[in-house]
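Late entry, written up from scratch paper. The run itself happened at the end of the previous shift, but nothing got recorded in the book at the time, so transcribing now.
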Amino acid sequence: MSLLLERNEPLPRLTMVSEFLLGTDFHVGLDRAVFVAAGERIDYGGRDVVVTGPSGAERRYYAGGSHWICRIGG
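Output as recorded:
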């Protein structure tokens, strides 16, 4: 399953996220996988992956040591 963080929609089921697309230009491979439960949203903020639950509570996971691959050109 490809995960595009641009949408920021709740995930339909428990998902282990180890990589994602940030827009159409960046592919991110996390140094550690993040588990996201059904109904939670995942986003990227600063150097953190942010998981937000239905109640609005947030969990942050540092992603500064992750691998970023960007597309050059257009």
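The chain has one domain: 15-70.
(Scratch paper discarded after transcription.)
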